[in-house]
């Protein structure tokens, strides 16, 4: 831990107590696991000596590690080998026109090694596990965090133990098995899988990759918006739109802008738009009511954001509130419509959870929350091949014809 020269320490977002990083310290001992979520504090003077906007222009590293001084990893030595991050940011002119926006950008994180934004957090997890001398890593997941951890662990020779709810899509299970992970399909909800993983991690001493517990993993997720800032030439957008499950991704996205501001690289913040599925929206409900998060059923086809008992809601709520943003819910039908619209106008294939943010943006524009002239960045957090079954639901059947030119001409006539 001593070679994280850029890290000053950790602080509890509940009571404010500070701690030095040490093996096995994930939450505040005083406040407990549920309330004592920790945040990483940086030495911004160190960061500015090590990196600058100018030095990044000459940096040939095409991965998240180009921002190494902003990350809680060893500042010297080897890092995990998989190329994670530096995903494309597309200016989506056709999609913007359909939505009635002047400036819209799509950040396609489905191009990461295991096809989701979660690879960013797992890269940090594996780097920290190696630094701590761990032999195995573990997590509970609805699918994407699991596959990202299994892939990252396989790349460096760590064992991976993965706990998933029985409803996890087969495409994601297939990834886990191919990567050689030990997969435990828990006959219950995501909360059941999480509890069992926590008990197993404690019993066998595995490195804990559960992002809502481990404070370092949100730091990996923030690299998505460090990239956005650089790709926009440090011009801060008006809105950043994020699908929300347990709250870690939007917390990480917000942390990027906080770090850049504190380092003096930007002079204002974007507003955060958090989007949940109507069938599982405990964080949105808490945002609107102004109280604590209460459990909900997990009733949505967007499995990666179907988290009825989110473990990191406070950081998510603070991200939205401190940014002056808001939260919105969308139906499964709106999510499937967004999948089609995104694919048809941009050529980007997002899974349901990955495009929930876009579905929320569509509603936010219609309701006047997001104004036509504002610059918007929408994160697409996972590739549609993760969940082909729901992609098929979102589309119509192909034309089925015999090899006959006249029948083809007749079938295509309404389309030509």
TrEMBL record:
The EC number of this protein is 4.2.3.1
Q: Which CDD domains match?
A: Thr-synth_1
Residues of the Tryptophan synthase beta chain-like PALP domain: 84-382
Query: What Gene Ontology molecular-function terms does this entry list?
Result: L-serine ammonia-lyase activity; threonine deaminase activity; threonine synthase activity
Q: Which InterPro entries match?
A: Ser/Thr_Dehydratase, Thr_synthase-like, Thr_Synthase_bac/arc, TrpB-like_PALP, TrpB-like_PALP_sf
Q: Which reaction does it catalyse?
A: O-phospho-L-homoserine + H2O = L-threonine + phosphate
GO process annotations (BP) = isoleucine biosynthetic process; L-serine catabolic process; L-threonine catabolic process; threonine biosynthetic process
User: Where does the chain bind pyridoxal 5'-phosphate?
Assistant: 144, 381
Cofactor(s) listed: pyridoxal 5'-phosphate
What the protein does comes down to: Catalyzes the gamma-elimination of phosphate from L-phosphohomoserine and the beta-addition of water to produce L-threonine.
In terms of PANTHER family, this protein maps to: L-THREONINE DEHYDRATASE CATABOLIC TDCB, THREONINE DEHYDRATASE, MITOCHONDRIAL-RELATED
From the Swiss-Prot or TrEMBL record, give the protein name.
Threonine synthase
């Amino acid at each position: 831990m001593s070679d994280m020269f850029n890290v000053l320490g950790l602080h509890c977002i509940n009571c404010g107590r500070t701690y030095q990083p040490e093996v096995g310290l994930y939450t505040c001992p005083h406040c407990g696991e549920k309330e004592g979520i920790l945040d990483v504090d940086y030495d911004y003077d160190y960061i500015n000596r090590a990196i600058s906007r100018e030095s990044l222009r000459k940096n040939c590293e095409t991965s998240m590690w180009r921002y190494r001084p902003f990350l809680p990893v060893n500042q010297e030595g080897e890092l995990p080998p998989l190329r994670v991050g530096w995903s494309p940011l597309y200016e989506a002119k056709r999609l913007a026109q359909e939505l009635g926006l002047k400036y819209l950008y799509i950040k396609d994180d489905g191009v990461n090694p295991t096809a989701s934004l979660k690879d960013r957090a797992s890269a940090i997890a594996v780097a920290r596990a190696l630094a701590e001398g761990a032999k195995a890593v573990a997590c509970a997941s609805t699918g994407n965090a699991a596959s990202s951890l299994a892939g990252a662990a396989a790349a460096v020779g760590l064992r991976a133990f993965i706990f998933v709810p029985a409803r996890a899509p087969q495409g994601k299970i297939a990834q886990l098995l191919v990567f050689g992970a030990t997969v435990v399909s828990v006959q219950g909800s995501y909360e059941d899988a999480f509890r069992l993983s926590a008990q197993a991690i404690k019993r066998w001493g595995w490195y804990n990759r559960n992002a809502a517990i481990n404070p370092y993993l949100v730091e990996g997720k923030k690299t998505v918006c460090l990239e956005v800032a650089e790709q926009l030439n440090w011009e801060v957008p008006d809105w950043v739109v994020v699908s929300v499950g347990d709250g870690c991704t939007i917390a990480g996205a917000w942390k990027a802008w906080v770090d850049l501001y504190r380092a003096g690289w930007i002079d204002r913040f974007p507003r955060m738009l958090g989007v949940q599925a109507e069938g599982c929206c405990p964080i949105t409900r808490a945002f609107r009511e102004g109280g604590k998060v209460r459990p909900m059923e997990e009733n949505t086809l967007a499995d990666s954001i179907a988290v009825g008992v989110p473990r990191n809601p406070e950081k998510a709520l603070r991200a939205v509130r401190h940014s002056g943003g808001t939260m919105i819910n969308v139906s499964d039908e709106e999510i499937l419509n967004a999948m089609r619209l995104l694919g048809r106008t941009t050529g980007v294939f997002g899974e349901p959870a990955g495009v929930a943010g876009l579905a929320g943006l569509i509603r936010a524009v219609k309701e006047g929350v997001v104004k036509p002239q504002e610059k918007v960045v929408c994160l697409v957090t996972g590739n549609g091949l993760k969940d082909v079954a729901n992609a098929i639901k979102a589309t119509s059947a192909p034309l089925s014809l015999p090899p006959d030119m006249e029948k083809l001409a007749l079938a295509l006539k309404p389309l030509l």
